[in-house]
Recover the amino acids of this structure.
């Protein structure tokens, strides 16, 4: 009889231990996993920024500028899951002459729901040659369903010389073999035509950059 009672006590003790262990596991899972996900997404956003950082010589903006200056073709790789969107040169478009990359994250490194935030001190529509860069980088974070839609944008603007008699602009255009929207991690950048024209009383040199999204 005593042995039966002892066995029953042992079984109850084992059940209690298992129940406590499952409770602790559930607590750790439901509280720990969100923290782990946030840390992972923090690293993801930091990695994304490096691909667009204007100080990074291998950023997509710098790659576009290099091809515009020296020609040839370059392949840009981004180790993130997201969507590329090409906005070709069009003065009437609010996203005129820009390349965007958007992805989902649980965290953001910029103020959410605040619109486009620039990473350049001067974001005038026309910059000064030798002082400003032709590519301007923006970022925004829009909240939805407990997450953020993080978007980076490379905008190409005109640069003009000091007296305003000459201007230079990189025009983004779609490669005939590609699309305007893509989830690929690879994009190809190549130089197209170089055009000289008169615009607003100055000589404007336009360099076409073809963006291939596959």
């Amino acid at each position: 009889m005593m042995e039966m009672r002892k066995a029953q006590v042992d079984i109850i003790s084992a059940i209690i231990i298992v129940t406590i262990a499952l409770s602790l596991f559930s607590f750790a899972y439901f509280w720990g996993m969100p923290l782990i996900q946030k840390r992972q997404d923090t690293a993801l956003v930091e990695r994304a920024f490096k691909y667009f950082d204007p100080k990074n010589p291998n950023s997509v903006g710098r790659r576009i500028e290099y091809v515009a200056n020296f020609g040839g073709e370059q392949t840009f790789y981004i180790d993130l899951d997201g969507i590329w969107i090409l906005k070709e040169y069009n003065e009437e478009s609010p996203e005129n002459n820009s390349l965007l990359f958007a992805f989902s994250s649980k965290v953001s490194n910029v103020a959410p729901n605040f619109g486009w935030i620039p990473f350049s001190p001067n974001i005038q529509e026309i910059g000064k040659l030798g002082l400003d860069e032709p590519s301007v980088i923006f970022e925004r974070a829009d909240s939805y369903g407990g997450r953020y839609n993080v978007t980076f944008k490379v905008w190409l603007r005109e640069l003009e010389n000091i007296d305003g008699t000459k201007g230079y602009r990189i025009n983004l255009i779609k490669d005939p073999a590609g699309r305007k929207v893509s989830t690929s991690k690879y994009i190809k950048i190549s130089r197209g035509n170089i055009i000289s024209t008169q615009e607003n009383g100055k000589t404007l040199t336009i360099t076409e950059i073809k963006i291939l999204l596959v």
Residues 2-52 form the longest helix (51 residues). Residues 24-33 have pLDDT under 50 and may be disordered. The helical segments are 2-52, 60-70. Residues 84 and 108 are 19 Å apart (CA to CA).
